[in-house]
Every structure is written in structure tokens, then in C-alpha cells.
Amino acid sequence: MKGKYKAAIALVLVLVLLPLTLLLTLTHWVPTLAGIWLPVGTRISLQRART
Predict the structure, then answer these.
(1) Residue 42: phi, psi to the nearest 5?
(2) Which residues contact 38 (CB under 8 A, 6 or more apart)?
(3) For residue 42, which of 19, 26, 33, 38 is within the disulfide window of CB 3.0 to 4.6 Å?
(4) End-to-end distance of the chain based on CA atoms, in angstroms?
(5) pLDDT for 1-51, tens place per residue?
(6) How many domains, the chain?
(7) Are 31 and 44 in contact (CB under 8 A)?
(8) Out of the domains of life, which is the source (predicted)?
(9) 7 SS3 class
(10) How far is Cα 28 from Cα 44, in angstroms, rounded to an integer?
């Protein structure tokens, strides 16, 4: 039974931390990913929203 609880906790942590990590590092990987199919010379700029 102890192993099942550890596996369940690990699964929950992965399901929470993975999307959070991807969201927080969005500005690093989105331009690279978008650069694969955009034309050469296209510039992508992500700016912080002003409130």
C-alpha cells in the first residue's frame, strides 16, 4: 500500500508541476518552436501586458 501512495503523489506532482513549468518558461521555448514554420526574417516579440 505504501508504494501506491508514493506513486499517486508522484503522479499528482508531475501533473501539476509540468504544466506550471511549461507556462513559466513560455518566453524561452515558444519563439524557437514558432521559428520552425515561420518565414526567415520574421521577428517574434513577447511583451508584458501593461495594467
Answers:
(1) -75, 135
(2) 44
(3) 38
(4) 50
(5) 678 999 999 999 999 999 999 999 988 888 788 888 888 888 777 677 676
(6) 1
(7) yes
(8) Bacteria
(9) helix
(10) 12
Question: Domain limits at 30?
Answer: 1-51
Closest-CA residue to 42 (of 51, 31, 50): 31
Query: In the structure grid, which three cell numbers stand for residue 45, read together?
Result: 516579440
**Separation CA 27–CA 21 (nearest Å):** 12
H or E stretch including 14? helix 2-24
From CA 35, how far away is CA 21, in angstroms rounded? Answer: 21
Cell of 5: 501512495
Q: What is the grid cell recorded at 41?
A: 526574417
* Residue keyed to cell 514558432: 34
